[in-house]
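[audit] Reproducing an earlier prediction to check determinism. Same input, same settings, fresh worker. If the tokens differ from the archived copy the diff job will pick it up downstream; this log only records the rerun itself.
[audit] input (325 residues):
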Amino acid sequence: MRRSTRPRPDLRDFPPVSNKELDAAGITGPELRASYEACRRLNASHGKTYYLATLLLPAWKRPYVHALYGFARYADEIVDDLASTLTEQEKADWLVGWGEQFLKDVEAGGSDHEISRAVVDTVRRWDIPMDYVEAFLTSMRMDLTVTEYATYDDLMVYVYGSAAVIGLEMVPVLEPLVPREIADPYASDLGIAFQLSNFLRDVGEDLRRGRVYLPMEDLAVFGVTREHLEHGVVDGPVRRLLAFEVARTREIYRSASSGVRLLHPTSRPCIETALALYGGILDEIEKADYQVLGQRVSVGRTKRAAVALPGLGRAWAARHWPGHH
């Protein structure tokens, strides 16, 4: 998960988490409720696409999703914000200290930190393994020092902690209808596909921040170097490289989409919409003839609405499914 340099949406576009949602989720106490709202604001500010999909969940599930994504966004933002004020070692030390304090807070059952308070509550309510949190923090530390990845397997080490574990943390909230060992691989693929789509969309932005998230071994196969990408010209070799990465990412989407049917019906519209919107990034890259080195492609507001509105209808129908909360 990496911060984008694009302008942030006006938070007035996203109403505060409602008392109805917090009441439905059984979240009480003014400080805890304020913490969930702080997480929601982070999710809305930095995860516009997934935030839109989250609105298709039942009210009682939304605060927990905001907490999990808010935690990831907070860590990601802090890592980038520290870049201008601290040395690499100081940034790593800060991140280690913050992560260790969070783990202590989970064990203690509460936190004084504005963001961590809601996340601790979510982690404990849903019995989310701390291994996932530790893997996430490891990937955040990697972003402080690693600027490229030699192989796809090397990249997947980073992606597991930065994205796959987010999907895995979400599984209990989404209420799978099957044992976790069956649902988890699909959730992992979902997080990976989302992250790879972001990498492809942001190749130019990442280069300007000194990072390349395309495996060096893939560049070599297509006769592309890092310096080649930095020139900003999408020629034949670059185009073929990006086409290959898009095709590989689509395969992961296909795998992830098979898991939607394993979720509670009230969770399916959210994930279906997120799949369509994030998958749409790949379509837009192709429509732009892979011109991602000097510009940032995106799924337009009209298309987002066209995808989300049918999801609202499916979400309403699912909430009348027997056995829903």
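[audit] rerun output stored. Observation attached for the diff report: The radius of gyration is 19 Å.
[audit] end
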